[in-house]
Write a structure and sequence with these properties.
Radius of gyration: 38 Å
Number of strands: 12
Shape: extended
CATH class of the largest domain: Mainly Alpha
Largest sheet: 5 strands, antiparallel
CATH architecture of the largest domain: Orthogonal Bundle
Helix content: 55-70%
Strand content: 5-15%
CATH topology of the largest domain: ABC transporter involved in vitamin B12 uptake, BtuC
Number of domains: 3
């Protein structure tokens, strides 16, 4: 290790002050260490690496890669080394200096260098150091990834030396991050370690949390008194921090108390001592109770033929006479104190980050529920129709997007086309459903519910007949792939961001239609007082038809958006119909702002429940339904109660 450290320092000198005036070829360096290269061992590998570092030879990383992979062969005739791969019975040889490739038909006359696992680990570490300044950016990135996976103290010096002159900003930032982590763990200067730990206190990445945890690693000890100079983490209380059995077992393992003797041990000891049908002067036939066996065992203890039974009082006294404690593996108390402060700061940032991440997830879920429910809110609010086929309109929109993508392979263009096409398809389906079925069932909610439920089943089966039962892909464009990553805690997929933006656009569009257009004025008039609206020349029958079509069309657009991240199947609508009705009822029937409020309440509440029970989303949905049932008991008209007809009803 000392040789390797010197080699690293030599590398730093080369990087800082330049290369030696007289350059050696790689083959020259290997010939000067021919035995160590041909038959490497853990004792000699450091000398070879030090010689390579001190030289100005080119091709050292390639040689080290080949050496590690057992691809270095020596020609017996002149001792020259090659990088080679086997080709049948022969070899394909690559000259280490010129990269000239030759082929030999037989590997006779060549000897393979076969470093063992320990030597290969040293070679890998040295290879990382060389690659840190490699002109190829992918090699530098690979070296940094290797350091991140397996950090060690000998990587610190070359990592620092490679910082100056690093041309790529992202690679430089990664090097600086790793340098701080390695300094916090391995630097010999305590002040430098403390400074690095303080620098890391605002970083919530998994790597940094791992570094701080390693600095604060502890071991459990027991002693009569805590030894002076121990970097104490905390005292353990028997019965609270560890059980009495575990504590006493620790005393036994530390040779501070005799081992306990169980009834099984008593029986085993007595059995081993049986002679002529007796043990401890007692006939074996009389040892048919635990008390008799213990009495015989005590006789063996008195004669020195068995260990003593530890009485409860003796055990309690032994526990009270010793101190159980955790001590840091790091001896320097200042370093662990800095690490504890950093860990506390990271915990605060982590809590804030988790809150932000949970809020973003809740907003995303609320936007999905809003898109799924806004069409239902319009039809249910204006017409009072319980449309159980609303989820199937969402499914129709998703399948429409899938069909468009089969015709238009450009995913961006296909999504742009799919949105209005899905609206048109589901608008037409909604109008047809209203004209053929719904208009004959007004003011008959039970018959309407049953009819729309039957239509939902028919639409599901129709989708199965056309598209099959397998999930169909609705592929998002490349610019929606991946996620917006702030740090290791805060991240959200671009598709969910797009759905959130789409929900905001629809909110604005629907408000514009309802507040700024004649259709919106007529819809609001029919919603608040259909009789008065009819007396003013408005045709409620026409408004109901257009309103039902509008709600169905919006459901189709929601299906395209939802299909970008969820599975597109014939049953996908059933996954959202319950949430859609809950959103409408909780928010307030027939009110856009109420639907938004209901979606937000349900989205945030469900994510909050999932936070406490993340492994069971079904339980979260169950609790959510119970919450909605309780909520409507106290506010039956929802968060935003509708004025007018709803108030009269």
């Amino acid at each position: 290790m000392l040789r390797l450290l010197l080699a690293c320092l030599s590398l730093c000198m080369v990087l800082v002050f330049g290369q030696p005036a007289q350059a050696q070829t790689l083959q020259d360096v290997l010939q000067n260490n021919v035995e160590a290269v041909a038959k490497p061992s853990r004792r000699t590998v450091d000398d070879v690496i030090a010689a390579l570092v001190a030289s100005s030879a080119t091709g050292i990383p390639d040689f080290l890669e080949g050496w590690r992979e057992k691809e270095i062969w020596q020609r017996d005739a002149d001792g020259v080394f090659f990088r080679a791969v086997e080709d049948g019975d022969g070899l394909i040889l690559t000259d280490l200096d010129t990269a000239e490739v030759t082929t030999v038909a037989d590997d006779d006359g060549f000897t393979q260098s076969k470093p063992n696992a320990g030597v290969r680990r040293v070679i890998s570490s040295a290879l990382v150091q060389f690659l840190l300044s490699d002109p190829d950016i992918t090699r530098r990135q690979s070296a940094l990834d290797a350091i991140g996976r397996d950090p060690s103290g000998d990587q610190l010096a070359p990592l620092r030396a490679s910082l100056e002159g690093e041309p790529d900003a992202d690679i430089l930032a990664r090097k600086q991050q790793l340098e701080r982590q390695l300094t916090a763990q391995f630097d010999e200067d305590p002040a430098a370690r403390i400074a690095a730990i303080n620098d890391l206190s605002g970083d919530v990445s998994v790597e940094v949390r791992g570094v701080i945890s390693q600095v604060l690693a502890t071991r459990q000890f027991v002693a009569v008194d805590v030894p002076e100079g121990t970097n104490l983490a905390r005292i353990l209380e028997v019965g609270e921090d560890l059980s009495a059995d575990d504590a006493y077992q620790q005393l036994v393992e530390a040779d501070l108390a005799p081992a306990t003797v169980s009834l099984d041990d008593v029986v085993a000891t007595l059995t081993a001592q049986i002679s002529d049908g007796q043990v401890a002067g007692v006939d074996v036939s009389t040892l048919d109770t635990d008390a008799a066996r213990i009495a015989a065992y005590e006789t063996l203890v008195a004669s020195g033929d068995a260990p003593a039974i530890v009485l409860p009082d003796e055990r309690a006294a032994a526990l009270s006479a010793h101190t159980f404690y955790l001590a840091y593996t790091e001896d320097n108390a200042d370093i662990t104190a800095a690490a504890e402060e950093a860990q506390s700061a990271i915990a605060g940032y982590l809590g804030a980050g988790q809150t932000i991440d949970l809020t973003m997830d809740a907003l995303s879920l609320a936007s999905i529920y809003f898109l799924a429910a806004i069409g239902l809110a319009i039809t249910f609010g204006v017409m009072g129709v319980i449309n159980m086929a609303h989820g199937e309109f969402i499914m129709m929109g998703a399948y429409t997007g899938y069909v468009v993508q089969q015709v238009v392979p450009n995913y961006t263009l296909s999504i742009i086309i799919a949105l209005p096409v899905a609206f048109a398809v589901t608008f037409a389906a909604g109008v047809a459903m209203e004209r053929l079925v719904i208009r004959h069932l007004y003011h008959r909610p039970l018959e309407t519910l049953l009819a729309t439920f039957g239509i939902a089943i028919v639409l599901q089966q129709l989708a199965k007949n056309i598209f099959g039962t397998q999930a169909r892909p609705l592929t998002s464009p490349d610019w929606l792939a991946g996620a917006w990553v702030v740090n290791d805690v805060i991240q959200i997929s671009y598709i969910r961001i797009a759905i959130f933006v789409l929900a905001l656009l629809f909110l604005g569009l629907i408000l514009f239609i309802l507040k700024r257009t004649r259709l919106g004025l007529e819809v609001r008039a029919v919603t608040q007082n259909p009789g008065m609206a009819a007396s003013m020349g408005i045709n409620p029958d026409r408004i109901n038809m257009l309103t039902f079509g509008l709600g169905s069309g919006i459901a189709g657009i929601a299906g395209v958006a939802i299909g970008l991240y969820a599975k597109v199947t014939s049953e996908m609508g059933a996954d959202y119909i319950v949430q859609s009705f809950m959103t409408v009822v909780v928010g307030g029937v027939g009110n856009v702002w109420g639907t938004l409020a209901g979606a937000s309440l349900i989205g945030f509440t469900q994510k909050g429940i999932e936070f406490f029970n993340p492994s069971n989303t079904l339980a979260a949905q169950t609790y959510m339904i119970l919450f909605v049932i309780l909520f409507i008991q106290f506010r039956p008209k929802g968060i935003v109660a509708l004025k007018g007809r709803a108030a009269g009803d």
